[in-house]
């Protein structure tokens, strides 16, 4: 068993291996998961969490890397979490990230972590927030959560941020793909990357139209900006950081940040509770109980509602 | 409040209005739902339940009506349940059913009921089994459960039968549509209706190919028959009844009937229990509790797992 208080203390001191070890403990179904989360709880809530999503090929990792550079120049400690909900691999950086993130690999002010979230208690979308809490407790000022694709899980993960960034690139009918994937609804800031390519203006216009940005909004409403970047050359990155800071200020001013964090926590708590109940039904004792109850229903000894009551009662017995 | 034992007694005597009243009580969220189900439980398990599904236009109602006629000629009491998971209307026969079912409207040995299942405790798919139990308790020998479309709910409902019939008609690439809808996996008996039209043989061949009926099966395995009918003229209906009876005999002989009913009951009990738990979370007390827990998580006073434990504990308190 790991000495959790000791590990947390070392993570607070900025030891990368301690941070890595804590993330490993929380991303899987470690028996010490609860101990770790309980130890981290009082240390969390300070970091600013930015979600980044977009179709493969839009340059998410390059943009993330450029953002890391910008935040580092501003003296911030930065955490990067690259989440792949469909990958069974985790625990270390993927090759692609390693290459693109190599600028920051030796920087002690940057933590980079790839994680797979398959099989996590509470479902795919709820492993990332636990890793975010580790980085938060370890003293990161900004945490960038990057998802690999645009599936439902990716969108869910990216939406669990203080600010969500949606990336697009010119061509490929990307706007329509993004609309289909449902990511147009979650963006607080939009980035059209590879803006030196043909069609960048058209993509920005199409996006502007689809988002209804030309339409009137209530005063005080957030109007998502569209920022054009060439992340590989660092162009437009300062403007992205500026847009992020503006959004952050707006969410704080209007109580949106507090509301988002509350809603996120409520969703997490509900999902974890229901998943635990479902797993209890599926466990050996529960499974046998369901079978016994079903047999009594089929025999006409018990109706399904009374059987469901018995099942529910058994779920919290003996805990 | 309804006098449930009295109502059940009258339904047992064959009074159609008592049967209709009971179905109304079980299909909604009546406060007497549980009382009704408890009263019905000992009276159920005798009826043979047949599910019928297929795309709109294949002639499901006409086929159902013809099957009712065939079973009536054999002296059986028949219940018909037309389920529309997407319709907000319920409580009486829809116009279309009335017209097509008019042959049987005045027959005291036939109960016909259309039901919508929206908003039912335990989800769409679980309202139909309760109505089936009413018809079963009322003394129906055969219950035909017909779904209007081929969505996921319809497929689920049709699959909750002792025998599932999948209907197709020539043309319209119907086989491929059926495959997409997932109904090719649930058929115990396939019916190609409107078999007097061009393409009926092609549809049957295509179906035969898609089902892999030409392939070798283990001895004792069920090989779903494909029956061609012209239901509007009553052609092929006796063959369908014969196929149904064969499947029923096979399921009884191989323990499949008992196993299906057990699995169905287990699924129902689990779903009702989990839905009730989810609804408890969403109720006034629970909702406030989730909010309070979420606020403590955001404040760092509590971790999400400890919060989920508190939520779970509260779900069964004071019941």
UniProtKB/TrEMBL annotation, chains A, B:
NCBIfam families: lao. It comes from the Bacteria. It comes from Streptomyces tsukubensis (strain DSM 42081 / NBRC 108919 / NRRL 18488 / 9993). This is Methylmalonyl Co-A mutase-associated GTPase MeaB. Pfam families: MeaB (PF03308). One of its GO terms (molecular function) is GTP binding. Keywords: Chaperone, GTP-binding, Hydrolase, Nucleotide-binding. InterPro entries: GTPase/Isobutyryl-CoA_mutase, GTPase_ArgK, P-loop_NTPase. Belongs to the SIMIBI class G3E GTPase family. ArgK/MeaB subfamily.
């Amino acid at each position: 068993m790991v000495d959790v208080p000791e590990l947390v203390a070392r993570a607070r001191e900025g030891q990368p291996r301690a941070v890595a070890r804590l993330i490993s403990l929380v991303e899987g179904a470690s028996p010490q998961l609860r101990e770790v989360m309980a130890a981290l709880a009082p240390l969390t809530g300070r970091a600013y969490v930015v979600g980044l999503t977009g179709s493969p090929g839009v340059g998410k990792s390059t943009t993330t890397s450029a953002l890391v550079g910008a935040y580092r120049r501003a003296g911030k400690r930065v955490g990067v979490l690259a989440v792949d909900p469909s990958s069974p691999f985790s625990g270390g950086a993927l090759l692609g990230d390693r290459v693109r993130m190599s600028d920051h690999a030796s920087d002690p002010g940057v933590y980079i972590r790839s994680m797979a979230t398959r099989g996590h208690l509470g479902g795919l979308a709820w492993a990332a927030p636990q890793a975010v809490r580790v980085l938060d407790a370890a003293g990161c000022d900004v945490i960038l959560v990057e998802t690999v694709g645009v599936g439902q899980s990716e969108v869910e993960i990216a939406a669990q941020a203080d600010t969500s960034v949606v990336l697009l690139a010119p061509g490929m009918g990307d706007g329509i793909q993004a609309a289909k994937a449902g990511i147009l609804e979650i963006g607080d800031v939009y980035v059209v990357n590879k803006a030196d390519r043909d069609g960048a203006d058209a993509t920005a216009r199409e996006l502007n139209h689809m988002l209804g940005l030309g339409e009137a909004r209530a005063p005080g409403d957030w109007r998502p900006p569209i920022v054009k970047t060439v992340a590989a050359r660092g162009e437009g990155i300062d403007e992205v950081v500026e847009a992020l800071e503006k959004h952050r200020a707006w969410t704080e001013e209007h109580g949106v940040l507090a509301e988002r964090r509350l809603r996120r926590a409520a969703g997490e708590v509900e999902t974890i509770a229901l998943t635990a109940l479902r797993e209890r039904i599926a466990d050996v004792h529960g499974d046998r109980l369901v079978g016994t109850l079903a047999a009594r229903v089929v025999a006409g000894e018990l109706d399904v509602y009374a059987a469901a009551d018995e099942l529910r009662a058994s779920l919290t017995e003996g805990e």
